Amino acid sequence: xxxxxxxxxxxxxxxxxxxxxxxxxxxxxxxxxxxxxxxxxxxxxxxxxxxxxxxxxxxxxxxxxxxxxxxxxxxxxxxxxxxxxxxxxxxxxxxxxxxxxxxxxxxxxxxx
Length: 112
Known about the structure:
The chain is mostly helical. The chain has five helices and no strands.
């Protein structure tokens, strides 16, 4: 009598892990045990990096706004404070885009 090898469900589970690990180097893409560990780590990094990306972009926008604001002659914190008091509801992403694409319009916003 042949030994039981767990059958279709387990093979499908293993193949699914190996499919996710395709593109990894060496044993990590071929051996189920190594691939499983690599995939779990990759998912952990992906989850963390989705949060990190939002932080990184916000920091980038702030740096761009600060550089443009100093070109106009005001610091970033003063600019944001004044915009808040003036009820200008542009977010940092839009301010950064305006600062890059249209410096004249940014200067007008900063002076307002």
